[in-house]
Amino acid sequence: MIENSSLFGKLNDQSAQVVILGLGYVGLPLATVLAEAGYNVTGVDLDRSKVDALNQGISYIDDVDTSLLEKLVKVGSLKATTDFSVVKEADAVSICVPTPLRKTRDPDLSYIISVADSIAPYMHTDMVVVLESTTYPGTTRDLLLPKLIEGRDLNVGEDFYLAFSPERVDPGREDWTTKNTPKVVGGVTPACTEIASKYYQGAMEAVVPVATAEVAEMTKLLENTFRMVNIGLVNEMAIMCDRMGINVWDVIDAAATKPFGFMKFTPGPGLGGHCIPIDPLFLSWKLRSLNYTARFIDLASEINTGMPRYVVGKVQETLNNQGKALKGSSVLVLGAAYKPDIDDVRESPALDVIGLLQQGGAVVSYHDPFIPVLRHEKIELTSVPDVMAEVENVDCVVIITNHSQYDFQAVYERAQCIMDARNALGEIAGDDPKVTGL
Ligand code: SAJ
Fold first, then answer.
1. Cα separation of 200 and 181, whole Å?
2. How many helices (H) and strands (E) does the chain have?
3. Domain layout of the chain by residue ranges
């Protein structure tokens, strides 16, 4: 009986030794929550600066409070190392390493493979391993499991346990955190689901056991594909409304008054971030290997990746209305981060818009209060020091990221013309022809 195993007992009273592999925006919050719950947690990362910072009780992740980290390190509940051999003493291991896409847009599982190879020599009986990195269905069972048991007499679901649990960390969000966001857990066997659920039940407010690791892997992909496809839909709505001379923002606000059966998404200059543009492509890649085309994902991806070019076309239209050509005009890109009030430019549409403007012969500058320098492919720009002076000086301002600290009333009054890709001006502009929207 599982309940009689020593592992179950250690998970039940949180006396278990826990190892978190990867101390980034997922791993560090997870390590902190598990240590706070009473587990004895060791974080492992190849980045010595992360390991040193953690051992000094210094948080390098905004979502993790330094005073809490300092307390946990001081009482000995949490420490860090670069040495994977700590796994040989571990009762529970969570893998929180990146799963990016390659340049060819297919999944890069090299981090998962590297970690699996690093811990395989230390695998032992009576332990549970949980993969948290977003990936395509089947990774846990078909790729990770064989690497962990290769050459060892370990039977999954009997001697040790293996599961998948999607990370649902939204950096910067304060209402839903690692601790209170329901934790989906799916095992390679039912016993794996039970043990992995027990592991997280000791620290999370709600654990949602599901039948298999594949269900858990697919859950995450549905969550983020749902978002990506709906953003693609609303971006196409913006294009269609523009063709008909209808204000798409009025339409969306009116639709959002429906108290059921509708969820508000807003159009924009494209899809940024390390989750939404990426995760659905894991699914479409996997399905291609099964000779199936995930048409919604491909279409939404086509629409979303086409938005930067659509925005640049609108900039040309805006300048044209002023009797100016894009070539030789000065254009200020306002906001470079992929969404407001953060400092992350990964996959940001601002990068595409800047590149396309430069290709069109515009003299491009940018401002972002969180991003002092932009280096990406042929882009090498520094955020302008005086944003309002630049707003006044350029031929056109294009609003890409509506950081809350911008004074859009002042931007409207001082700019010669504006392309507003976020409806940041709202009612400020009225029907002023110097302003165009999506
Ligand atoms: N975007 C739109 N229109 C929208 C919503 C977003 O154009 O209606 C754009 C944003 O500008 C951004 C991109 O999509 O460029 C992604 O935005 P996001 O709000 O989805 O933010 P992310 O990338 O930080 O997504 C994360 C995800 N969290 C995890 O994967 C754990 C996502 O599942 C969350 O739903 C999302 O945060 C959130 O709700 O904040």
1. 12
2. 14, 15
3. 2-211, 228-437
Can you read off the two tokens belonging to residue 23? 């101390």
Q: Residue 58 and residue 23: Cα distance in Å, rounded?
A: 13
**Ligand 1 atom at minimal distance to the Cα of residue 168:** 31
Measured in Å, residue 276 CA sits from the centre of ligand 1 at 6
- Alpha carbon nearest to ligand 1 atom 31, residue: 168
Record: fold of 2-211: Rossmann fold (3.40.50)
Q: What is the Å distance from ligand 1's center to 5 Cα? A: 42
What is the per-residue pLDDT across 266-288, written as a single tens digit (0 to 9) for each? 999 999 998 999 999 999 999 99
Point out the catalytic residue in the list 96, 192, 275, 417: 275
pLDDT digits (tens, 9 = 90+) for 40-86: 999 999 999 999 999 999 999 988 999 999 999 999 999 999 999 99
The domain made up of 228-437 has a fold known as Rossmann fold (3.40.50)
* 275 is an active site residue: yes
Q: Which ligand 1 atom lies nearest to the CA of residue 166? A: 31
Ligand 1 site residues, Cβ closer than 6 angstroms:
168-170, 223-224, 227, 231, 265-266, 268, 271-273, 275-276, 338-339
Q: Which residues does 228 contact at the CB level (< 8 Å), separation at least 6?
A: 271, 276, 277, 279, 280, 297, 300, 301, 304
Q: Do domains 2-211 and 228-437 have the same CATH topology?
A: yes
pLDDT digits (tens, 9 = 90+) for 110-169: 999 999 999 999 999 999 999 999 999 999 999 999 999 999 999 999 999 999 999 999
